[in-house]
Amino acid sequence: MGRFWAIFFVATAVIAVAVSWFSPALHWWFPGDGKAHSNLGLRIDDLFHLILVIVSITFIGTHAALGYVLWRGATIKPEDKVLFSHGSHSLEVIWTIVPAGILLFIALYQMDVWAKYRVKSFSPAETEAVAEVTARQFEWRIRYPARGKKLQPTPQPDDVYTVNELHVPTGRPVSISLRTEDVQHSFFVPELRVKQDAVPGLVIPVWFDVIDRRTGKNAMELVCAELCGWGHYKMKARVFAESDEEFEQWREKIAGEQFDDGFKKAAE
Amino acid sequence: MSTLHPTLDHAGHAGDDAHGHGHGHHELSFIQKYVFSTDHKVIGIQFLITTMLMLMVGGALALGVRWQLARPWEYMPIAGDLTFARDGGQISPEYYTMLFTMHATVMIFLVIIPVLAGAFGNFLIPLMIGADDMAFPTLNMLSYWFMWPAILFFAFAAGIGPEWLTGVVGGMDAGTAQGWTSYPLLSAVKTSAPGSAMAQTWWLMAVTFVGVSSMMGSVNYMTTIINMRAPGMTLFRMPLTIWAMFITAILQAFALPVLTAAGFMLVADRLLGTCFFIPAGIVINNAAPTIGGGQTLLWQHLFWFYSHPAVYIMLLPAMGMVSDMLACMCRKPIFGYKPMVYSMAAIAGLGFIVWGHHMFISGMNPALGMTFMVSTIMIALPSAIKTFNWIGTIWGGRLQFNGVMLNCIAFVSMFIIGGLSGIFMAAVPVDIYIHDTYFIVAHFHYVLFGSTLFGVFAGIQFWFPKMWGRMMNDTVAKFHFVLTFIGFNVTFFPMHMLGVAGMPRRYADPYHFEYLSHLLPLNQVMTAAAVLMGVAQFLLLGNFAYSMFFGEKCGRNPWNANGLEWTAPSPPGHGNFDVLPVVYHGPYEYSSPIVKDKDYLMQTEYVPLAQRQTNAGH
User: Fold this and answer.
1) Residues A150 and A207 occupy one common structural domain
2) What is the ipTM of this complex?
3) How far apart are CA A110 and CA B53, in angstroms?
4) Is residue B352 part of a domain?
5) Which of A103, A249, B258, B492 has the fewest CB atoms within 10 Å, i.e. the most exposed one?
6) A106 and chain B: CB distance < 8 Å anywhere?
7) Tens of pLDDT along B465-509?
8) What's the mean per-residue pLDDT of chain B?
C-alpha cells in the first residue's frame, strides 16, 4: 500500500505540472492574445516567466525528492535498519545558502521594473497626463483637458468628460491622474498589466505605454480590483488606444457634442 | 504561585484549581467538569469541537460563493429558499459580498486560529512539557468562553438575528460585506454599502472578543512553557509543537494589540465621529460630506501589521505538529532539529517586517515596496529550510502509511505549492498584475487549507487516542483524506490559472467581462470539486463522533511515540500524570541504537550508561 501512496503523491505533482503546461493552450492563461500590450507589461511578463521557470524547477526537484523518500520508505524491508540521523550540518548550510542566493537574485532583479513603474525619477521623462480618472460606485468618470491644454488638478470649463470610456494615444508613455470620489477602488487594465488602487483623499499618477492600436470592439477592458461595495463586479469600462490623430479627432468630436448649444453659424 | 513551581511535592498542590494527581481532590459538579472547566484538556476539546462545527459553517459559506461562480444568478435549491427566499432564491450581489466576507471571517477567526492555538495549544502544551495544567487555568477557561460572544456577534454581523436586537436592517443582504480586511472607507462610512451599517460594528466587536480570547491564550502559553516544564525538559528538548506554540504565542502577544487598537479606532470613527481613517470632503451615496483629516492607508498598515504575523500564527503550530507526527510515522529523528527551531524563529521575526507586501499597489510610498519585497522574498528562505528538513526526515525511515502520515505528506506537498506561489506575489512588478486576482486566492488557500488544515486533520487523528482513549477508524480517515485531497486540488489549483487570466477576486459575476467569459466551465468543475470536498468533511465528523464512543480501545501509547503526553493515561485524568515525569532525552529518539528491542525511546525512559555504551559502542 505504501507504494501506492508514493505514486499517488508523485502523480499529483505530475498532473499539476501537466495542467500548468497545457493551460496556455486551453486559454487558461494571460488574457486576450496572451501578450502584454505595453512595454512595461512585457517586462512584467518576462519577470513572471523567469520566476515561473525557477519555481517549476524547484517544484519538480522537491517533489522528485519527496517521491524518492516516500518510495524508499515504503519499500524498506523488515530487516533493514532505519537511517538514524539527526541531520547534517553541511546539508543545512547548502540548502540555506543556495536558496538564499536565488531568492536574493529574484528580489534584486525585480527592482528596476518597479522603479520605472512607480518611482518618479526613474519613470519616463516625457509622460503626458492625458486624463483624470475618477472612480465612484460603480463607474469610471474620465476628464480630459481641452485640445492644446494641459490637464489641471481641478475641473476647467472647457474640459471634456466621458463615462466608462478611457481614450489614450498609443505608442508613447501617457499618464492618468487616478482619484476616487467615494470609497477605495483599483484601476486594473489586465492587458496592460497595470494596476493601482484609487485611495480616498489622494491623487495618484499612473503611467503606461500602449504598444498597438486598440479601438472599436478591440478596445481593452478596464476593471475594478479593490472591493468597493456590492457592485464591485460591475465597474466595467473600456480603454481605447488610438493614434494621435484619431485621439484628437475623437476628442474634438466629443467636445463638439458636449458643448453643442444648438446655435448654428450664420453662414451655414 | 504554586502553579509556577512544579515540584515533586504533591501535597503542596492540593489547591482549589487544577491540581491533585488523581487522589484526594474533591468531586467537581458536571458544569465545573465539562462546561466551565478549568482543565486544559476539556478546554482544548471544547475548542476543537467548536472549531470543527465552525469549519462546516465556513465551508457552507464557501459553497455559497462557489454556487454563484458556477451558476451566476441562478436559483439555488434548498438553501436558496431557506436563507434568501425573498430574493427569489438567487444570491444577490449584497448577499454575495456578505458570503465571502463571512467565509473568510469564520475560517480565520473561528476555525484556523482557535483550532491551532485554542484546541491543540491547550490540549498539548501541558501534556507535552509535563505540567499538570496551564499556569492560569481560570484565564484559560475565559479564553474559551470569550469565543462565544464573538460567535454571536459574528452571527449578528452576518445579518442573522432579530432586527430589534441587532439593528441590522435588511437581514443577511445587509450582513457585513467589507471583506475580512475591512478596508475603510467602505468599513468606516455607514452609507457606503448595506453591510457598512450596523453589521460592520458587530463585526468589529466580534473581532475584538476573538482578540481578547487569543491574548488570554497567548499569555497563558508563554507563562506555562517558560515556567512549568518538567525536570529535564530543557528548551532544546521540547517537541517542535511546543516551540511552534511558544513562538506563536509571542507573535500573538506583540501583534494583536495593534489590531485591537485599530479596531477601536475604527469603531470610534463609526460611532464617536472621529476621523482616524476618513479624509475630508468625501461624499458617499449622497450622504453629507465627511469632515475628515484622516488617512485610509493607516488602517491598512495597522491591519496588516497584525494580520501578516497572524498568517504565521495560522501556520507555525501546524508546522510544529506535522514535524512531531512525521518523525513518529517515519520512525526516525527529525532531520535538523535546531535548524527547524531557528527557522521558525526567523519566520516569526521576519514576519513582523513584511506586512507591506499586502500593500504594493495601495498607493503607499513606492520605495517601501522595494524594502518589503526584499524582506518578503527572504522569508521564503526559512520556509524552504523547513521543507528540506521534512523531506530529510522522511528519507530513510520506515514509513507507516496511515491517515496521519498521509495528511502530513499532503501538508509538505501542498506547502511547497503554497510557498512557491508566494514568490510570484512577493516580486512587486509581478504583483502589480496578479494582486487581488484569483492567484492570491489560490496562494492562501494552499497555505491555510493545503497546509494548516491537512496538518490539523493529521493532528486530530494522531492525538485523538489521548483525548478519548480510543482510536479513530483509519480506513475512514484515509477515505476522508483522499476525497479532501482530490477535491482540494481540483478546486484550488486552477485558481492559479484564473489569476494569471486576470480574474479579480470578490466578483459576484466575472463572466460579463469579455476576457473572462470563457472561464465559466472551468469554474463549474471547481465548484463540483468543492462540493465533493465539503461532503467529505462529514466523514471526518462522523469518524470523530463514532470513534469517541465505539472506536478501538487503546493504551497509553498507541503510536509508540516518544513524547511526554504518551506516558499519561488515555485519557489523562485531572492533573495529567501519575507521577511527575522526568525527561532524559529529546523527543525524537526513534530507532535509537541505544535501545535494542524497540524502535522508540520515550523522553522519560532512563537508559543506564552501561547499556548506552554497549549498544551504541559498535
Assistant:
1) yes
2) 0.95
3) 44
4) yes
5) A249
6) yes
7) 999 999 999 999 999 999 999 999 999 999 999 999 999 999 999
8) 91
